[in-house]
């Protein structure tokens, strides 16, 4: 059970399913033929609660269960003011065991018509809290029942102990997995930031490092039967042409060192080909703990391992810079990428603290309106912009003279300057159509305004979607080729601001109607499958 959060690919669904599998298998072997059902309900804010009127600010939403009762409670929730065993456990943090479900007024059978035909059927019911290890805060409940079993429905003392210990393990791993799940959106931002900061990075992949027990065949061993592999790499997202795709399900391929065989390159030039047929560069990077550069699939690749503050391998980046040797990442470029990664991992540490303590901290009013995944991504994106603004504040004013020297600038330079001025709202739409009037704003005061501009507190002077349309088709590499270094810095500022504004756009609730409903209001991050019991 302790390994489950580490091999669940950041997904609650796999973690919860693994928990259910353990319970089901144990009762299948030791339960004398009894049927066992289980579900998990997590605490979440009640958007309809009015605390001034005495409403409980939280509710329990049922998000996972054993397969026999899938769909019976799909997305339904238990509101805080409803008297129930689950709410009792949520509020007190103490487990409750009921020997008879049918005659207990606090137990609500959602599929009552199903059980009404068999009035003699009854079952036992155990509800336990899911607590965060650091603070002891209750973040959910686990319910286990024997209602579908026709024999020996009571849970024996050693079974109660086994389930309690299993739920304790579930609680221990919950904050670990929850932090990584909320961090995924920040990884999307990481790949976007790297590709827009370094135009030579044209594609890439992000792998999560998982312990080898994930592979059913177990660790590969040498002649002394000692394991030679400790980790596998699971591909969780890809970068291509400036777009990041988060992989799901079977798309999340798992690479194992002993199985990852292929020919690096079709090149006939020996130094461009690695003919040993192994994907060694990824695992060499993982084992050595430093970046590895090589030729793969005819392109130049740079692999970078990302470690947690405790020194454990966490993620691995595989960055593709194309076939041209002059685009191989330099030491300076790799150092810049490491600086970005350091900012990302600073945010990850904050995610872990919140997940462990069960507390939320907000750095701006914008963060209060965002789900956790976007809140931390916004924090990372803003840290990247802050670093760029430091660079801009130290920029030599003479660097802008090249831009002002143009009588008729290249189209890319004109577009970038126009967009910068439009975001800041420095001039009218009429002035934005005349280069001589636009370039008069390219001065030291512009750099001060750019450094002072905070997209989280100062609204952009124009619609960000219109700005995005004007920049459509203009890549970082195009700006470097057709512009100048100052123009590239201004372009990066615009792209950083736009990225922050996109992440920070108000989160629109899909809930509608004036009355409360127990039906699902928003899409949860895992596929909800629910038990037939709700108290």
Give a brief outline of the structure.
The chain is α+β, with helices and mostly antiparallel strands and 535 residues long. The chain contains 15 helices and 15 strands.
Task: Provide structural commentary.
By secondary structure, the protein is of the alpha+beta class. 38% of the residues lie in helices and 17% in strands. The chain has helices at 12-30, 85-92, 112-116, 157-197, 280-288, 331-357, 365-368, 372-393, 401-404, 411-424, 435-439, 444-452, 464-471, 476-482, 485-503, and strands at 37-45, 58-65, 77-79, 96-98, 108-109, 125-131, 138-145, 203-211, 231-240, 243-246, 254-255, 292-296, 299-307, 313-320, 533-534. β9 (231-240) and β10 (243-246) form a beta hairpin. α10 packs across α15 (485-503).
Write the element-wise H/E pattern from the N-terminal end onward: HEEEHEEHEEHEEEEHEEEHHHHHHHHHHE
Indicate the percent of residues in helices.
Answer: 25-40%
SS-based class = alpha+beta
Distance between the termini: 28 Å
Low-confidence stretches: 214-227, 261-278, 507-535
C-alpha-based Rg, rounded: 28 Å
Number of strands: 15
Per DSSP, the total helix count is 15
**Strand-residue proportion:** 15-25%
Shape: elongated
- What is the typical, i.e. mean, pLDDT? 81
User: What is the multimeric organization of the chains shown?
Assistant: single chain
């Amino acid at each position: 059970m302790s390994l489950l959060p580490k091999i669940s690919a950041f997904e609650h669904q796999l973690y919860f399913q693994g928990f259910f599998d353990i319970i089901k298998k144990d009762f299948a072997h030791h339960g004398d033929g009894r049927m066992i059902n289980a579900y998990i309900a997590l605490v979440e804010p009640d958007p309809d609660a009015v605390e001034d009127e005495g409403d409980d600010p939280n509710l329990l939403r049922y998000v996972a269960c054993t397969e026999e009762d899938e769909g019976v409670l799909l997305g339904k929730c238990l509101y805080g003011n409803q008297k129930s065993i689950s709410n009792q456990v949520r509020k007190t943090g103490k487990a409750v065991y009921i020997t008879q479900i049918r005659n207990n007024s606090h137990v609500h059978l959602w599929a009552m018509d199903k059980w009404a035909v068999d009035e003699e059927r009854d079952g036992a019911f155990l509800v336990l809290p899911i607590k965060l290890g650091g603070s002891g805060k209750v973040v959910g409940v686990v319910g286990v029942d024997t209602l579908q079993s026709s024999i020996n429905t009571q849970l024996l003392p050693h079974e109660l102990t086994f389930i309690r210990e299993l739920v304790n393990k579930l609680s221990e791993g919950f904050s670990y997995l929850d932090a990584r799940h909320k961090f995924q959106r920040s990884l999307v931002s990481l790949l976007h930031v790297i590709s827009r900061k370094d135009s030579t990075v044209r594609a890439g992949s992000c792998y999560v490092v998982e312990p080898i027990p994930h592979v059913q065949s177990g660790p590969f061993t040498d002649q002394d039967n000692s394991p030679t592999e400790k980790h596998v790499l699971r591909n969780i997202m890809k970068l291509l042409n400036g777009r990041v795709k988060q992989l799901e399900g079977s798309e999340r391929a798992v690479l194992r060192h002993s199985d990852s065989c292929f020919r690096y390159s079709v090149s006939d030039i020996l130094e461009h080909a690695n003919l040993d047929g192994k994907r060694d560069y990824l695992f060499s990077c993982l084992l050595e703990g430093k970046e590895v550069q090589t030729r793969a699939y005819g392109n130049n690749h740079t692999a970078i391992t990302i470690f947690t503050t405790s020194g454990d391998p966490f993620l691995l980046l595989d960055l593709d810079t194309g076939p041209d040797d002059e685009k191989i990442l330099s030491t300076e470029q790799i150092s810049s990428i490491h600086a970005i990664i350091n900012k990302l991992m600073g945010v990850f540490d904050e995610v872990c603290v919140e997940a462990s303590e069960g507390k939320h901290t907000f750095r701006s009013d914008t963060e209060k309106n965002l789900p956790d995944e976007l809140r931390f991504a916004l924090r990372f994106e803003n840290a990247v912009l802050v670093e760029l603004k430091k660079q801009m504040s130290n920029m030599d004013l003479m660097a802008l003279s090249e831009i002002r020297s143009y009588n008729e600038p290249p189209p890319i330079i004109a577009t970038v300057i126009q967009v910068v001025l439009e975001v800041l709202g420095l001039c009218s739409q009429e002035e934005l159509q005349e280069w001589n009037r636009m370039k008069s704003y390219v001065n030291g005061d512009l750099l001060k305004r750019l450094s002072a501009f905070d997209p989280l507190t100062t609204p952009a002077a124009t619609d960000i979607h219109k700005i995005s349309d004007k920049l459509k088709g203009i890549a970082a590499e195009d700006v470097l080729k057709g512009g100048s270094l100052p123009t590239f810095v201004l372009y990066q500022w615009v792209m950083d601001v736009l990225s922050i504004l996109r992440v920070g756009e108000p989160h629109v609730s899909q809930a509608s109607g004036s009355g409360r409903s127990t039906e699902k209001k928003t899409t949860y991050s895992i596929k909800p499958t629910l038990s037939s019991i709700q108290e």
